[in-house]
Amino acid sequence: MKLSSKAENILAQINNKTKLGDLRKIAKEIQKDHELAMELWSTKRFLLRQLAILIMDNKLLSQDLINTLDKDAQTHSLDERNQLTDWLMANQLTKDKKTITLIQSWEDSPSTLQRRIFWYYQGRLRWMGQTPPPNNEELLSKIENQIEKEEPEVQWAMNFVAGWIGVYDKKYRNRCVALGEKTGLYKGKKVSKGCTPEYLPEFITIESNKRNL
C-alpha cells in the first residue's frame, strides 16, 4: 500500500540505530493514531511495528484484528515476534477491560502467541506485587500438567507464572521449586548482569529473599 506523507516522514526517522526510547518519544508526539499505526504495521518492519503498537487505539483492537496482527507477527524471528507480542500486551491489551477479557479467553487458543499472552498476563498480575488472584492452585496444576508439552514461547510464560506464585505464595513454593527441578527449564542458562536466572529453584530463592518473603 502507498504510505501517507505522515507515515513516510516517520519512516525517514527510523533506522537500525533507533532505540526503544526513541520510539517512545515519537509515539508521545503522535499520541493515538490508529490509522497511522496500521500504515506503519503494513511496512512489515520490526521497529515500525513496535511504534505502531504504541499508537494504536486499544478500543479498536477486536479479536479479528488481533488475529491479523498475530498472523503478521509470525513472519518475524522468534525473538522479534515474542517482543511484538509482549509489547502489544503491555502497551495496549492490558489497558482496556474489553481486551483484558479477550486475554482471559486465550488459555486454550489455537494461537501460540495468544496462549503466551494469557500466561504472561497471569504472571504480571502476580509480579506487580498486588494481592494475587485466588486461582494459584488451579493455574499451578495446569502448568504442572501442560508445561512440558507446550511450545517454547508458552513454556517461558508458564514458567514465569510458576516463578511468581512460588515467590509470593509460600504454600506453593515447594511445588514450584519441584516443578523447576523436574522440567529443568532454563537450568544453567546465562543471564545478563543484574537479571535473575529463570530456572525456578534459583529464581524463587533469589526473588523471595529480595522481598524477605
TrEMBL record:
Pfam families: DNA_alkylation
Domain of life: Bacteria
Database matches in CDD domains: AlkD_like
Residue ranges the record marks as coiled coil: none
Protein's UniProt name: DNA alkylation repair protein
Species per Swiss-Prot/TrEMBL record: Chitinophaga varians
